[in-house]
Amino acid sequence: MSPRPDDPPAVDTELPLRTPSVASRSMAAAIAVVAWIAFGAQTNVTVHRLLMRGFGVVEGVERLTSYLTNLTVLAVAIGFTCIAMRARSRPGRFFRHPPVVTAIVVYIVFVGIAYNALLRYLWTPSGLRALLNETLHTVLPLLCTLYWLLFVPRFRLVLRDCLLWLVYPLCYLFVTLWRGSTTDFYPYPFIDVDRLGYAHVLVNALLLLLGFVVLMSIFVAINARRPQPPAGEEA
């Protein structure tokens, strides 16, 4: 989406802004801590479960990375750590750019919506597993959305940015289907080729992709209607 000719130029900056950096960095740090703890706990649960079934650690890590939730939570942990620490390395500066932060937020919100709409009632975890499940699929999406609304300023956004946001879910789908064809394991029932067949799975994938595009469009629309941040707030 390109800015209208009469719009003021949007600020292309890095997060956190100088004002209010304390609040922004504190919330980013809190999100990073929650994400790292949740990812670590999920890693322990997944690897331990595979070890109990006679598999090795490598198989446990492979199973962990089969789920979009885990990969996205890892992206949240890395991205918000870079924001909180004001990382100056090239990767750190990449993760601090508002379009990249927005993409990560859209991904985790999509994960939360998809889980709560399609998967929540397929199982009923209890105890710490229930707490972990809510953290991954509800708490982190809400915290990231709140951070985005409060601290991510209006930024330049072109069509290329939106198309690049699609790379992650499309690559995940491709890799997951390829993995499934070699291992017969599909992490989600709506992309289980063995049970549904490729035609049904592709329809489901297109519907999910459409939902992602709608969600992405909402964030794009909100960004376009935000007030222009003062020039003095650039990082």
From TrEMBL:
Domain of life per record: Bacteria
Keywords assigned by UniProt, alphabetized: Membrane, Transmembrane, Transmembrane helix
Segments crossing the lipid bilayer: 27-47, 67-87, 99-118, 130-150, 162-181, 201-222
NCBIfam families per the UniProt record, alphabetical: Pr6Pr
Protein name in UniProt: FAR-17a/AIG1-like protein
Annotated organism of origin: Paraburkholderia caballeronis
